[in-house]
Design goal:
0% strand, Tetracycline Repressor, domain 2, DNA-binding transcription factor activity, HTH-type_TetR-like_transc_reg, mainly alpha, transcription
Length: 208
């Protein structure tokens, strides 16, 4: 039994790793289970046995990419969220949450853009895209409540909407991939732009 579980875990990991490549190019809608199996080095039957269908593979890929691991811990229960909310100063909280937001985008931006592209033509992709958008808003609302508690003049709705725009896969990709910014430059820009928009007037020193 232990050996079977180990094999299933290994196959799961291989399929998820392959899904990142296959779902980005040729894209989720065009990708087939056969292509996914070939990229993962497993049988088609293994893909169906471990996941059941293509949407389940995509959902698992998103979960692992967002988390950065395969732990079944929700984003809001992650230690970095507690650290952000526990920061005594709003700018300190902002730095922590933007840093981790950037790390998440490094792992997910290409997947999310592929998902968004597929959403217009694929019902399952559209559903997962909407779920992800809702999850991102929920996380930002939870975090920004903490900012407002530390800085009551901050408008919560503005904070959430601006954060979602600056920390979107589209903005990240335009600046880091398209314009060639480093991840650190992008992170500092997000912190400083949010701080200025929300009236938190201290800025982050740029790092060379």
């Amino acid at each position: 039994m232990t050996e079977v579980l180990r094999e299933d875990t290994s196959a799961r990991r291989k399929i998820i790793e392959a899904a990142r490549e296959v779902f980005v190019d040729p894209g989720y809608a065009a990708a087939t289970i056969k292509q996914l199996a070939a990229a993962a080095g497993v049988s088609v039957q293994s893909v169906y046995f471990v996941f059941g269908n293509k949407p389940s593979v995509l959902s698992a890929l998103l979960d692992v990419a967002v988390a950065g691991d395969e732990e079944k811990t929700a984003t809001l229960d992650r230690p970095w969220v507690a650290a952000a909310l526990g920061a005594p100063h709003p700018l300190g909280q902002l730095r922590i949450q933007v840093h981790h937001g950037r790390l998440i985008l490094e792992r997910t931006a290409d997947i999310l853009l592929a998902l968004r592209a597929a959403a217009s033509a694929d019902e399952d992709a559209a559903r997962l895209w909407q779920i992800n958008r809702t999850q991102r808003r929920t996380v930002q609302e939870h975090l920004m409540v903490g900012i407002v508690e530390k800085a009551p003049t901050v408008d919560l709705e503005t904070a959430v909407n601006v954060a979602l725009t600056l920390l979107s896969p589209e903005t990240y990709t335009d600046l880091v991939v398209g314009a060639g910014w480093t991840g650190q430059k992008y992170e500092e820009w997000v912190v400083n732009t949010l701080a200025a928009t929300l009236g938190l007037d201290r800025t982050v020193k740029s790092r060379k």
